[in-house]
């Protein structure tokens, strides 16, 4: 029986595996049996234990949830985006979990996006899809596709009601509001329409849940009649499909972690055979954008931080240089408009946008005022336009939508996410907070950036509590972002820090390469160096520092718990990849083979096996004094399976029983946790209450 002082007892059933002469015993492998009633009973008991152990935080959880709710304008409307004769937008309604997707016809002479008072529906709006109606009767709901056909007649959309990211695709007739008989189960993300909207392309997965097939569906026909356009048999690669902004070509993107290939089909001839832009070459990545008579090619062929070239759209061949490679300036994407190109890039750890006028004029970068920020293009569906829409945020500036005139270079703020007064009744003021960039020194002498935000007046003498967040994998960058829920921590005197560690992409491709494969441990030692630096620099103290990370960042959390348990007062690991070696050894699991170019292949390479075994958290649990650990997972997660954190917590308890370890499993969600916005706020309130408790601020 579980009580507040006695966690559930996980039975130990020794299970052996042998690789490269190494025998490993896994006592908790039985937890991988998702359909076993004993597994569900164990996870349920863990949830009950976690609830009992955190019962004293119930009032604080409610308080934090209400603070987020109070600061959020619940009934709101996104800035409408123009596409042909319509403005498209999404509304949220107070008390409802999900958005309402709408459009309204553009009126004569209307050039500015329409607005409404307090998020009310626009006059003359047409509701395309109401997520709240779709979600009725389901604990989880997620949209995979939402794709209006070029002629504006059809809406292709897909739904997931379990969190496993397997969607049912449907088509809605927007002229009548009726659903067509067309229905395709078990699809993945990604759709693309033909020019005349008679054909819809979509993606499905294989038994390992790898997106491997692109299909062609003729509107009005049965799914059984659909045709496979491309099947990718190399298990390292996955596929995607999209329509170019020009609406001239269907792109089939085929990608591994380090190699890519793109196929094209004229959108006006959807039954035509796909043509290859450039055959795949190991280690060469490229992405394609259509622009008039040419295809733009963003690539890393002899260009570590990528270069931009182009080739003929009629007969793709040689690549003609357009923007040469500049070490330290990572080119991340190119967006083509009729008279301008916009390149998304990053340099010195910050994102940026570069404009290239067509037919004359020098390229220029758009300037932004803050020392730390994140900027990128927002929805820009129209090809022939002299204006782009971009999104901007910082650690203190709420999410902001701007329209930027590519000719006059004037930028107009269309909307800044409202932040309503908090518990003290005062309006939100960014000037009440400070953001800083600091640098830690890694073990090998590398300087590692840290972003910090805190409320003005927070002491900087080591007495302030601090939360440090990290990820450090897949070249994903943790660029500054604004969080309403975070304000509740900052206003309680907590410093929030982001460690921009190697394995991420903040400082270019080399930063990523130095934190993967046989250099992966740099990710972990960088994070520990950042934590130690925050203490040494007087930002906080080790007994007032909580670490947090999710997914591959959860692997980071487990690794640093083993590496430097004394450095933290607590650790939050969300959907954590803590049994990495076991998963990467099993090619039948979702995504495993595609991950070998990120982590290495321990099945075939003894060196990779030994290296991964030396850092995988589950393999390296020791009888030491661990900080308090909160592990959060989801039963239907297909990216990091629930049993990884379940096994990890069980082994922690068995090996270091004096520690405080909690496991919380969402029994009806996926990798992203709860789907509804209120449920997400409650989950964040639960985690933040636990953090505040560990920091002595509960």
Automatic annotation (TrEMBL):
Q: Which SUPFAM superfamilies match?
A: alpha/beta-Hydrolases, Peptidase/esterase 'gauge' domain
Q: What's this protein's name?
A: Oligopeptidase B
Which UniProt keywords are present, listed alphabetically? Answer: Hydrolase, Protease, Serine protease
**Quick check: keyword Transmembrane helix in the entry?**
no
User: Which species is this record about?
Assistant: Micromonospora krabiensis
Q: Give the family from UniProt.
A: Belongs to the peptidase S9A family.
**Domain annotation Peptidase S9 prolyl oligopeptidase catalytic: ranges:** 481-696
User: Residue span of the signal peptide, if any?
Assistant: none
Q: Is Repeat a UniProt keyword of this protein?
A: no
Per the database record, which ranges form the Peptidase S9A N-terminal domain?
8-414
Q: Any idea which GO molecular function terms this record carries?
A: serine-type endopeptidase activity
Task: List each coiled-coil range.
Answer: none
Q: Which GO biological process entries does UniProt record here?
A: proteolysis
């Amino acid at each position: 029986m579980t009580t507040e002082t006695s966690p559930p007892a996980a039975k130990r059933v020794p299970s052996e595996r042998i690789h490269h002469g190494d025998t490993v015993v896994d006592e908790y492998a039985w937890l991988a049996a998702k359909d076993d009633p004993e597994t569900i009973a164990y996870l349920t008991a863990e949830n009950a234990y976690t609830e009992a152990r955190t019962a004293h935080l119930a009032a604080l959880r409610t308080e934090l949830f209400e603070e987020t709710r109070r600061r959020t304008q619940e009934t709101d409307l996104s800035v409408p985006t123009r596409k042909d004769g319509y403005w498209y937008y999404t509304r949220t309604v107070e008390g409802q979990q999900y958005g309402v997707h709408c459009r309204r016809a553009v009126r004569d002479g209307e050039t500015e996006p329409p607005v409404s008072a307090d998020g009310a529906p626009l006059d003359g709006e047409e509701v395309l899809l109401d997520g709240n109606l779709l979600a009725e009767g389901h604990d989880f709901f997620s949209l995979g596709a939402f794709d209006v056909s070029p002629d504006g007649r059809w809406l292709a959309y897909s739904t997931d009601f379990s969190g496993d990211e397997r969607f049912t695709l449907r088509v809605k007739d927007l002229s009548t509001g009726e659903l067509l008989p067309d229905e395709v189960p078990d699809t993945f993300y990604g759709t693309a329409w033909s020019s005349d909207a008679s054909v819809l392309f979509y993606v499905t997965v294989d038994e390992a849940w790898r997106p491997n097939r692109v299909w062609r569906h003729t509107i009005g026909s049965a799914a059984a009649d659909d045709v496979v356009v491309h099947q990718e048999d190399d298990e390292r690669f996955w596929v995607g499909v999209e329509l170019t902004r020009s609406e001239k070509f269907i792109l089939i993107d085929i990608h591994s972690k380090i190699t890519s290939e793109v196929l094209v089909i004229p959108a006006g001839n959807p039954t035509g055979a796909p043509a290859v832009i450039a055959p795949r070459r190991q280690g060469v990545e490229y992405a394609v954008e259509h622009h008039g008579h040419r295809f733009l090619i963003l690539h890393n062929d002899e260009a570590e931080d990528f270069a931009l070239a182009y080739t003929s759209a009629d007969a793709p061949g040689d690549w003609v240089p357009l923007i040469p490679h500049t070490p330290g300036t990572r080119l991340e994407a190119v967006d083509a408009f009729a008279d301008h190109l916009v390149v998304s890039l990053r340099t010195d750890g910050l994102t940026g946008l570069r404009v290239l006028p067509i037919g004359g004029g020098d390229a220029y970068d758009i300037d932004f005022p803050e020392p730390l920020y994140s900027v990128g293009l927002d929805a820009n569906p129209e090809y022939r336009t002299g204006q782009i829409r971009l999104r901007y945020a910082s650690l203190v500036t709420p999410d902001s939508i701007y329209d930027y005139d590519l000719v006059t270079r004037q930028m107009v703020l269309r909307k800044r996410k409202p932040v309503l007064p908090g518990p003290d009744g005062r309006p939100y003021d960014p000037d009440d907070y400070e953001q800083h960039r600091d640098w830690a020194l890694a073990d090998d002498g590398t300087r590692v950036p840290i972003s910090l935000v805190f409320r003005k007046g927070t002491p900087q003498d080591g007495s302030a509590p601090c939360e440090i967040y990290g990820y450090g994998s897949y070249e994903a960058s943790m660029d500054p972002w604004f969080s309403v829920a975070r304000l509740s921590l900052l206003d309680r005197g907590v410093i929030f820090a982001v460690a921009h560690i190697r394995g991420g992409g903040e400082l270019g491709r080399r930063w990523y390469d130095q934190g993967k494969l046989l250099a992966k441990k740099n990710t972990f030692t960088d994070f520990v160096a950042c934590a130690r630096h925050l203490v040494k620099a007087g930002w906080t103290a080790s007994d007032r520092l909580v670490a947090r990370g999710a997914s591959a960042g959860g692997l980071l959390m487990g690794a640093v718990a083993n590496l430097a348990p004394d450095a933290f007062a607590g650790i939050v690991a969300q959907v954590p990849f803590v049994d990495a070696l076991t998963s990467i050894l099993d090619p039948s699991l979702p995504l495993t083979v595609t991950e070998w170019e990120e982590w290495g292949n321990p099945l075939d390479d003894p060196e990779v096996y030994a290296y991964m075994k030396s850092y995988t958290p589950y393999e390296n649990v020791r009888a030491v004094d661990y900080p308090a650990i909160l592990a959060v997972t989801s039963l239907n997660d297909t990216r990091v399976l629930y049993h990884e954190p379940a096994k990890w917590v069980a082994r922690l308890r068995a090996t270091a029983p004096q520690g405080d370890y909690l496991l919380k499993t969402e029994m009806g969600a996926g990798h992203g946790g709860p789907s509804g916005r209120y449920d997400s706020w409650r989950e964040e309130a639960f985690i933040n209450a636990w953090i505040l408790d560990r920091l002595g601020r509960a």
